[in-house]
Design a protein that fits this description.
Distance between the termini of chain B: 51 Å
CATH topology of the largest domain in chain B: Sulfite Reductase Hemoprotein, domain 1
Shape of chain B: globular
Keywords (chain B): 4Fe-4S, Iron, Iron-sulfur, Metal-binding, Oxidoreductase
Protein name (chain A): DUF2849 domain-containing protein
Oligomer: heterodimer
Organism (chain A): Ancylobacter pratisalsi
Structural class of chain B: alpha+beta
CATH architecture of the largest domain in chain B: 2-Layer Sandwich
Number of domains of chain A: 1
Domain Nitrite/sulphite reductase 4Fe-4S (chain B): 119-272, 410-547
Structural class of chain A: alpha+beta
Cofactor (chain B): [4Fe-4S] cluster; siroheme
Chain lengths: 108, 551
């Protein structure tokens, strides 16, 4: 599941590891405790390439919870709050940037 | 409509059961993602930014009201209450959970629809003219031949692992609504000098990273030789197409690298060896497929019944009629296009309620039949002209009578970065903002036919290369930028657009498009000269000078 192209990644600031949850595709972040969270505030943050690769490798062990893990940039505000680091990640956090036409599904 | 038999229904039920088992094994860990991914893709299941996406084929763009109603049901029960009609005669559901997918697929299979051939390196869902069988002047109903290709290509063992995906489109009318020149294989159905039915065969068209207009390799292929000739093309491609580089694996690269003439020679040599074999289509086989297409029981009707004549006194109806209704091959009937582009809405989206409404209207006024076009609109192919006023009133009440078909607001856009894992930039919000700038539909009608196509990445799902105005989103230093091309077209005169100049930022795009259109309005030779013809006459330079002086 690890993204091979990221094995030589450059890290120029805080990053985390993100993926999609297997069961429903919902965006998740790797936590410091070695699990996955749907809240970016709980994401493990690293700042060097070796740390990022180690975090990615830990997320790519054959646990069956998340799909397509990769390293993604984050921004840290003055009070330490974690936010997505680029537009793609902002959309993954907040959803499409326009009003959706439908309603929530009935099925669980 | 095509009538499926027990074989089709059993096959689909077995396929759903197989996928249900694969999902169970994925969820319990027996399959890892590397093992599961090709299996889900063979059923049209992608993992996008926020969720799994199910892409469902609508073969040759023909749907029954019953099928559309079931799609509305799937949207309502398993998704977020809407579906997205794509540029390839598919519908996509954007938010389905993995463990709900087998149930959703089972419900779709009950009405004969599925995601097979909507993904993977196989022969994809064969597309054609959404007006097939209804429009005047056709040489034959192209859906007959699309269905023959569908049956031939579905799970074809030799062509399940091609170098890359493979797209075939067919047109049978003088005006190409299927964009055949930008497909891997384009088929133009026509008759030769002695009246025999056959195909002009084009290969190597396509958009994406390396766009090409297809080359004609055979001006006339007798229709009954269709499968053997397609098989010869597939074999040459399968043998010589590159597999070492995904970006150079499409047939267009092979045709470009060895030349259309050499490619044609290789195909003809292969064809000579197989043309008289099992793939030769007998009259009986063709007749059997043809007999499974059931056509409406048309009545002998007037072209201008009293209800219609009276309604034409209403300017709103008259405007909708002029914009959305086309002549039918049968007197007294019309082809109606339903715009899925209300100003400011995501292009191609339809809510479950709208799908149900359209299904009801199809049952009431259109022999229960709906069509899907690559322009991301729907059609009712056969509506009695006496019923047009009532149909319009009901469409209008459902927000489905926007009279902007083929106008500047009728924008084709891929899902872009708002949904798609491959995209670099957004497409839908750009389309929404441009549409709002031209919200005055009287003004839009004054501009005339103008196709804007927007893609959120180089893969070109929004067909930007062949937009009269093409817009390609790219990412530079973490920001969205957009390259603009002018003069592309996807019809029988297909050509790729010419780059206007440097890419502009997200915020600049709507204003730039306004300036391009304003420049056209000043430069067009007559009020009847279309935008694309003005660009063809003058080139992009006059537009470039005006537009970049202002930005």
């Amino acid at each position: 599941m690890a993204a091979p192209q990221q094995q030589k990644l450059k890290v120029n600031g805080p990053v985390t590891v993100t993926a999609n949850r297997l069961t429903d595709g919902v965006v998740v972040w790797r936590t410091a405790a070695g699990g996955w969270s749907t809240d970016i505030a709980e994401a493990a943050i690293v700042t060097t390439a070796p740390e990022a690769i180690a975090l990615l490798e830990s997320a790519s062990t054959p646990h069956n919870e998340a799909v397509g893990a990769y390293v993604a940039p984050v921004v840290l505000s003055g009070n330490g709050a974690i936010g997505p680091g680029n537009l793609r990640e902002r959309i993954r956090v907040a959803g499409p940037t326009f009003a959706l036409p439908g309603a929530e599904p009935h099925a669980s | 409509m095509y009538v499926y038999d027990e074989f089709d229904r059993t096959f689909l039920a077995e396929r759903v059961a197989e996928f249900r088992d694969q999902v169970t094994r994925r969820l319990d860990g027996a399959l890892n993602e590397d093992e599961f991914k090709p299996l889900r893709l063979m059923n049209g299941v992608y993992l996008q930014l926020h969720a799994y996406m199910l892409r469902v084929a609508i073969p040759y763009g023909t749907l029954s009201a019953h099928q559309l109603r079931r799609m509305a049901h799937v949207a309502r029960v398993y998704d977020r209450g809407y579906g997205h009609f794509t540029t390839r005669q598919n519908i996509q559901f954007n938010w389905i959970k993995l463990d709900n997918l087998p149930d959703a697929m089972a419900e779709l299979a009950e009405v004969g629809v599925h995601g097979i051939q909507t993904s993977g390196n196989c022969i994809r869902n064969v597309t054609t003219d959404q007006w097939a069988g209804a429009v005047p002047g056709e040489f034959d109903d192209p859906r007959i031949w699309a269905e023959i290709l569908r049956q031939y290509s579905t799970l074809h063992p030799e062509f399940t692992y091609l170098p890359r995906k493979f797209k075939i489109a067919i047109t049978a009318a003088g005006h190409d609504r299927a964009a055949i020149k930008v497909h891997d294989v384009g088929l133009r159905l026509h008759r030769n000098d002695v009246g025999e039915l056959g195909f002009e065969v084009l290969v190597g068209g396509g958009l994406g990273r390396t766009p090409f207009v297809g080359k004609s390799i055979r001006p006339f292929l007798p229709a009954r030789e269709l499968l053997s000739y397609i098989e010869a093309i597939m074999r040459v491609y399968n043998q010589y197409g590159r597999r070492d580089n995904i970006y150079k694996a499409r047939i267009k690269i092979l045709v470009h690298e060895i030349g259309a003439e050499a490619f044609a020679e290789a195909v003809e040599a292969e064809w000579e060896a197989i043309r008289d074999g099992a793939l030769h289509l007998s009259d009986e086989m063709i007749a059997d497929i043809r007999s499974r297409f059931v056509y409406p029981a048309y009545e002998a009707l007037e072209d201008e019944p009293a209800e219609f004549v009276a309604a034409m006194g209403d300017p709103r109806f008259a405007t909708w009629f002029a914009n959305s209704v086309h002549a039918h091959k049968v007197p007294g009937y019309s082809i109606v296009t339903i715009s899925l582009k209300p100003v400011g809405a995501p292009p191609g989206d339809a809510t479950a309620d709208q799908m149900d409404t359209i299904a009801d209207l199809a049952d009431a006024y259109a022999f229960g039949e709906i069509r899907v076009g690559h322009e991301q609109n729907l059609c009712l192919p056969s509506v009695a002209r006496r019923d047009l006023p009532e149909l319009w009133r009901r469409l209008d009440a459902a927000g489905l009578a926007t009279p902007n078909v083929n106008l500047v607001n009728d924008i084709i856009a891929c899902p872009g970065l708002d949904y798609c894992a491959l995209a670099n930039a957004r497409a839908i919000p750009v389309a929404q903002e441009i549409a709002k700038r031209f919200a005055d539909l009287d003004k839009a009608r004054g501009i005339g036919r103008l196709h804007i196509n927007i893609s959120g990445c180089i893969n070109a799902c929004g067909h930007h290369h062949v937009g009269h105005i093409g817009i390609l989103g790219v990412e530079k230093n973490g920001q969205e930028f957009y390259q603009i091309t002018l003069g592309g077209r996807a019809d029988e005169q297909a050509q790729l657009g010419t780059l206007l100049g440097p890419a502009v930022s997200y915020d600049q795009v709507p204003g730039l498009v306004e300036d391009v259109v304003a420049t056209y309005m000043e430069l067009r030779a007559t009020p009847q000269e279309l935008f694309v013809d003005t660009v063809a006459r003058l080139g992009v330079e006059p537009f470039k000078e005006r537009v970049y002086a202002a930005h």
